[in-house]
Write a structure and sequence with these properties.
Elements (H helix, E strand, L loop, with lengths): L12 H10 L2 H8 L3 H15 L4 E4 L2 E4 L1 H22 L12 E5 L2 H18 L4 E5 L5 H7 L4 E4 L12 E7 L1 E6 L8 E3 H6 L1 E5 L6 H8 L5 E6 L2 H6 L8 E4 H11 L1 E7 L5 E6 L8 H15 L2
Parallel strand pairs: 3-4, 3-5, 8-12, 9-10
Antiparallel strand pairs: 1-2, 5-13, 6-13, 7-11, 7-12
Helix pairs in contact: 1-2, 1-4, 2-3, 5-11
Length: 302
């Protein structure tokens, strides 16, 4: 198929990218803030241009055709390049911007880092919005597809995010957390004692660093509950014998209000390092540079 560029409405690149990313007409319309009929009309025009349905039904969902799959990366990079060209002569104006930045992060990062960051951004960029998404299966693909602007994740957990630019942000340590009136536990907790207490395990998209280390060291845990987030684990502990392992900063922030106390672990524990990742196409974007700098500054204040 050969189509003359002069015969193509380049404005269709915006709805095309939205359709490729969302794989849903309604969500694509919401993404670019147009009505569903307008997005459906754009899809019809794109189907004529490419002579391909682009989106087809698969049960109750819509999926990309092979041609559409092949367009995901080139279209995203093309739009990013256009943004760089158009923004190269200007600067990002945070005071008047209505940009929405999507950040994928754990509940720990949301509480410890993004909460104070947003408090600062409200003053500098009152109309900018931060959309925080949790870390679910395929979260790296979300970054690759352009569904999020930034991923904050421990670089020590092996994954497929190594191909993205990265800046290390801060470090933390792990501690055990128990109910403040749990008299079975003193100021320290050995590996043997940890194995005797009922244990709440955090099971996110990948095994938590603390549990990975305990598994490698052969430390037994009496797992009585599993949860997806660190905050949920802490909320299960008040008034019980249960124990969990979380980051010290999170324990210090939430523990007292929940009636919990931290306990030093006498068991092998790794140091936690957190880093921010982004797609290379966003590196030169003035708005994204501004966001990265603000995240870095917030991390330095911890």
């Amino acid at each position: 198929m050969t189509t003359s560029l002069s015969n193509v409405d380049l404005n269709l690149l915006i709805p095309l990218n939205a359709l490729l990313v969302e794989q849903n007409v309604t969500r694509a319309a919401e993404r670019v803030q147009v009505g569903q009929p307008a997005m459906s009309a754009s899809l019809a025009r794109l189907r004529r241009i490419f002579d391909d349905p682009l989106l087809v039904k698969d049960g109750r969902a819509m999926v990309l055709t092979p041609l559409a799959e092949s367009l995901v990366q080139p279209v995203a990079e093309l739009l990013a390049g256009i943004g760089v060209v158009l923004g190269s002569a200007g600067k990002f104006d945070p005071e008047n911007s209505t940009r929405v930045f999507a950040i994928s992060a754990s509940d720990y990062i949301s509480t410890v880092l993004l909460r104070p960051l947003i408090g600062e951004l409200i003053k500098e960029a009152p109309r900018v919005r931060i959309a925080i998404g949790g870390l679910h299966a395929g979260f790296v693909d979300q970054l690759r597809r352009g569904r999020c602007d930034m991923l904050i994740w421990p670089p020590s957990i092996a994954g497929d995010e190594d191909g993205f630019p990265r800046v290390d942000l801060f470090t933390d340590t792990f501690v055990a957390v128990v109910d403040k009136d749990n008299h079975e536990v003193g100021d320290e907790l050995s590996a043997e004692q940890l194995g005797e207490l009922p244990y709440v395990m955090i099971c996110g998209p990948r095994t938590a660093l603390a549990d990975t280390k305990l598994n490698e060291s052969g430390v037994h845990r009496n797992v009585v509950a599993t949860v997806e987030t660190f905050v949920s684990a802490m909320h299960l502990l008040p008034g019980t014998r249960m124990v969990t392992i979380v980051q010290r900063r999170l324990a210090d922030f939430l523990g007292p209000g929940l009636g919990l106390r931290t306990v030093t672990l006498r068991a092998p524990m790794p140091e936690l390092s957190e880093a921010m990742y982004w797609h290379p196409r966003s590196t030169a974007d003035p708005a994204h540079r501004w966001l990265r700098e603000r995240v870095r500054e917030a991390a330095n204040r911890l």
